[in-house]
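Entry 12.
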Amino acid sequence: MEARILRLNMAGQPIEWLHWKECVNLYARGIVSWSLGGVVRRVCGGRSRLTGSQTTIDLPAIVACHGNKLMQMRLDPPLTNPALFYRDNCQCLYCGHYFTFDELSRDHVVPSSRGGLDRWENVVAACKRCNQFKGDKMLDETNMELLALPYRPNPYEYMALINSRRLRGDQFEYLRSRFSRYSGEGLALL
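Predicted 3D structure (tokens):
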């Protein structure tokens, strides 16, 4: 899989993951202010008619950009099943077994039918068997316990979660230094 480039705002906050072509565009527009990490890709351009030399640009793993539009990081990251399953380390938080994405489902700790919201703080990864057994019951109405409390990942954790399969060591180190104390094993094992 091709590595992505982490885009930051001028404050060093994560904004988005970029394809290398999008990063070249940022350099061409002159809005990259600083960069970190190793080279993700070397891009070769045209040749000079005068010297015959070819232009090249080394794209780093992390770029910070300025511009007219102030880029804001997402304080409330969107809840998706892949990010949820990575947050919970692909583990059912009821039985404790590990599963593939296809074998997991999103369970509402306080069921939707009982007023529970579809929010990070109320959902956990659950195997389909445990989710079906729990149904629309509250935990105290079952013989089940949570292995960990659900939490909303901060923006740094979320960026690691949504790109975990292509995350480079230098990108992970940058993001990890800003993880919250609630980060579980899912983030620690990326």
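Annotation: The helical segments are 20-29, 81-87, 128-134, 155-162, 169-176, 185-188. The first helix runs from residue 20 to 29.
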